[in-house]
Amino acid sequence: MNIRISTASLIGENDDMLWSGALYGLKRLQEMDHQLFFIPDDLSKQQLALLGNEEISASDMDPNAVDLQVITDNGILKVMDTNGAEIESAKNWIILSTKICFPSRKAFLQRTTSETDIEIALNLDGTGENSIDTGLDFYDHMLEQIAKHGLIDLNISCDGDLNIDEHHTIEDVAICLGQAINQALGDKVGIQRYGFTLPMDESLAEVAIDFSGRPFLKFNGEFQRNMVGDFPTEMTQHFFYSLTMNLKATLHISVQGDNDHHKIEACFKGLARCLRTAVSRNERIANILPSTKDLLE
């Protein structure tokens, strides 16, 4: 990626300094094969020496052939796309380099049928912030587990035909959630792909996921109660089935215990931790697709 960097984004508090974290961030971008363009003549000898010590240099390229531009605004570094829209921001180059190397993976989805009206917005690289309203309190609580323990920012609203029953709301939200996660993952390059288990008090849920592109669910677990709060326990397996088919993943869940609330919650928390692991990225695998077939659908 070609990145044009304004002089103001490099200069620190005075002519002898660079912006906080610049040496680390710029070196990191270069090591991950990003091409950097800046104007050396605008920098002091001391600043150039600091860059030179880390072998950071401006690339020889057309300054107009850029993919991203880094500018400053009121003490904040901002990454702009070719249309001039802000896509990332940070106070220092360490954080900014992470955001450039690993852009936030977001998705927004709307789905309206005669049975439900759903909106979902999510960020796989979030902190677990969430706002969830499906009209079913226990279901909202379970979906919150996916956000909190998966570190996924998740907003879900659903207006469903609860006057009939809970089935359409639970099923359709699962469908949309699976589609949204799959959309945010994109080509799946650089992800861990697999994730693995979770105890909750006397209950134990073993959860394993593979973003294989081959949807399949294996669910082992039984419930004694018909309802937990306003949630039919028979819909637990159906939620994971609907999610899996639209997530295009292989999912295995096995749960045992005495308390049905704990068992269901352990399944959702286990899924969350699996997602957190499986969608995570690091520099070692940044440009690697985890498949010997070179394809993950």
Automatic annotation (TrEMBL):
Gene Ontology biological process: L-histidine biosynthetic process
InterPro entries reported in the protein's UniProt record: IGPD_sf, ImidazoleglycerolP_deHydtase, ImidazoleglycerP_deHydtase_CS, Ribosomal_Su5_D2-typ_SF
EC number of this enzyme: 4.2.1.19
Keyword set includes Amino-acid biosynthesis: yes
Catalytic activity field: D-erythro-1-(imidazol-4-yl)glycerol 3-phosphate = 3-(imidazol-4-yl)-2-oxopropyl phosphate + H2O
Subcellular location: Cytoplasm
CDD domains for this protein: IGPD
Entry's Gene Ontology cellular component terms: cytoplasm
One of the record's GO molecular function terms: imidazoleglycerol-phosphate dehydratase activity
Residues annotated as signal peptide: none
Keywords: Amino-acid biosynthesis, Cytoplasm, Histidine biosynthesis, Lyase
Pathway entry: Amino-acid biosynthesis; L-histidine biosynthesis; L-histidine from 5-phospho-alpha-D-ribose 1-diphosphate: step 6/9
Family under the similarity heading: Belongs to the imidazoleglycerol-phosphate dehydratase family.
Name this polypeptide is given: Imidazoleglycerol-phosphate dehydratase
Name of the gene: hisB
